[in-house]
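@channel sequence for tomorrow's demo:
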Amino acid sequence: MKKLLSRLLVCFTFFFLAGNVSAVTNSANITGSTSLRANYTTTLNIVATATNRIRGAEFNLSSNNSNIEIVSVSGANGFTVSGSNGKYLVYKLESGFSVASGTVIATVKVKVKSGSTVGSKGTITLSDFKMTLADSTDTVSGSGDTHTITVASEPVLSSVNTLSTLTSSVASIAFDKNTTSYNVSVGNDVTSLGLVAKATSSSATVSISGDENFKTGTNMVTVLVTAENGSKKTYTITVTKAASDNNALASLTVSSSSFTFDPEVYEYNITITDPDVTSLDINYTAVDSTAIVEITGNEGFVEGSNVINITVTAENGEEVTYKINVTKTTTTKPSTDTNSEEDKNNWMVHIAWGIITAMLIAVIGIQWSISRKEDK
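structure tokens (generated this afternoon):
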């Protein structure tokens, strides 16, 4: 019984090893796509299988020219390919270089010819395959392969060009995929709707234009959906932006005055003592560049009270007025004219006193003379 079992074990081992040896043969196989549309290309792999490491190879490569053509052949995994007219050499100019069995040694780029009939087949055939293995300088022959590619039909492209959702970060949009026009009103501080649009079909593309830098009044935003087959649908949003209501001044300065300006204080008082000043040098800046500023009363100052009005009109027409009360005093500057009226009056007084004095002296003299004559 033991002898029988031993013989069976030996036979089993022999057949197992024989099977493994026969399984490892020198060959080349073409792998890759088996279906391709007309006028498209694909890349196939040439896989070498051998009983030892592979140093190089050579083979013939051909196609049935009715449907498929070879575009190019390239080396892979360190190998270089050279050749023409269907004969190719795979090599590596490096001593000791080799790759393991089952490695892709070259790639083949093929193309299905334009006009090929859907369902028809094209083949790529690798023949006369030989290899140089690591344990020898001689070439060994191996089996080739034939790879078949079936001409595929053109895919049916989606025609769905609608949106599934359309939302805004600043406004409410009652969206319906079949409604293509919308109207939205926004405040003056809004410059964009912040739109987020999602296509119904994952193969469709979405582009948004006009959703930025809104100006006062009407703005147009469009959302274009392009289906996979090229058909288009446009959603339009008319955005009405409100006019600015900002009618405040950011700054206000007056020459020769150091009052502190507050945008929320609308009345100021200034006193001027120079009688020659008839207007003020006023500088201002509006908070909103669209506001209009108008100044009235800043001319022809008279002694006493004068009022300057600075009216700021917002873009939406709302007005506010800043008032400057200017008090001009009656103090006059001393005159430097030596011939002034006052000087003339002073001179006249002196002359009068001189005449009176002279007359008094003359009267006294006459009286004295009369008195002496009477004494004699």
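heads up for whoever presents: The domain at 25-152 is CATH 2.60.40.680 (Immunoglobulin-like).
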